[in-house]
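ARCHIVE CARD
Drawer: 12
Card no.: 0347
Subject: one protein chain, sequence and derived structure
Cross-reference: see card 0346
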Amino acid sequence: MYKHLLPLLLLLLAFTATAQQTPQVAGDWNGSLKVMGTELPLIFHISAAENGTLSATMDSPRQGATGIPVQQVRQVQDSLFIDLKNLNAAYVGKLVDAETLDGQWQQGGQSFALQLKKGSAAEAMKRPQTPKEPYPYRSTEVTVENKAAGIKLVGTLTIPPVKGPPGPAVLLLTGSGPQDRDQTIMGHKPFLVLADYLTRQGFAVLRLDDRGTGKSGGNFATSTTGDFASDAEAAYNYLRNHSGINKKKVGLLGHSEGALIAAKVAAANPNVAFVVLMAGNAVPGTELLVAQNKALLESAGVPQEQLQKYLALREAQFKVAATEKDASKAADQIRRLEQEAKASMTPLEQQQLGLTDKAEETIVAQLSSPWMRYYLAYDPAPALQKLKMPVLALNGTKDLQVPFQQNLPATEKALKAGGNKKYTIQEMPNLNHLFQTAKTGSPAEYGQLEETFAPAALEVISEWMKRVVR
């Protein structure tokens, strides 16, 4: 659930910058931000105009982000200030010499040491699994019409060179946040890798830009999981009616929120041939996000006493967002809970937990959004109980966003309660939320890994799918 990542991952957002000052700091500066047991290289490119005005861009190579414009940069004597208002972040550094800046990266109420050296030492991470053309199959851009919503969705359909009757197909469903058809994140394109692999294994694969994203129509900002399920159902019917596909062998594969959508669509369409749930939660959103926050903050080393205070606050706020039907009243209650919690903490505790005034406005806005209110209130179990077709549920043991200890047993419980006898539940050792082989599982690690999709996971998925469509 990519929109719930720690504030560090907001580095992918764009920002712009200019300010008056001398050209002393003009040039490239690079350093590594150490956070949550990982290193994140950053490069600032600072340029000076003839009148002394500075402009800058930033690269985060391991996140696949380059040329990000900076919002504000200024030099006062030997100090450099970079203000990143859109990220709730800033960098303040002091020139030690002509080649070195010693300073602090400040974000979300926390501060991290960041020394910058002159030059562009960091390099973009390699993504060796990303497929390169030409492909040994047909790849076509297609348009899917969701008549119920009055929008058109655009994506890519890949069809293997199968001789004989039409073959099986699968629809890929992305996780949360505005995702393109490849589910691009930090330079990785996991759905492109997966689609390429499955097509080479004999499956037609359809992947789409989310509504309001890429070339697809619609408004992402006002949409909920229910709306995305409507889009998925339209795409499923598109595949069933395609002349080159066996309508009895069309399945659904969803990752993260996409797994919720896959189960929801399959529950309403018993003809779905199979369902693959990758890192899907099987507990209500309120429970999942508490567990997610706990896993992420424990990984970051937050002391237990402070962690429990933070989790109690968030759990109370999540329940308000999920149950209060009036959005305005919900926002007021969420803000009041935040302020009451801060009043019971020392200033140091507030700082350590990132409970700033800016963070308060952010959490109120997030928990007031239509998507979040729907997600927190949604219980996946009833849909899972309706699934009678073969189901494969996979989760990595290093997944900090959808903890496997909570969700795989809950998935099995729901499927068993519904009488499904065709399910497979499997833990994937050492894989993170994106199904990469990981050391920590931290979201900060995603962009540092060259692997986009663990070969073991690709093999498990494809072999299972081939068995169930025979």
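Annotation on reverse: The two ends are 33 Å apart (CA to CA). The CA atoms of residues 438 and 449 lie 8 Å apart.
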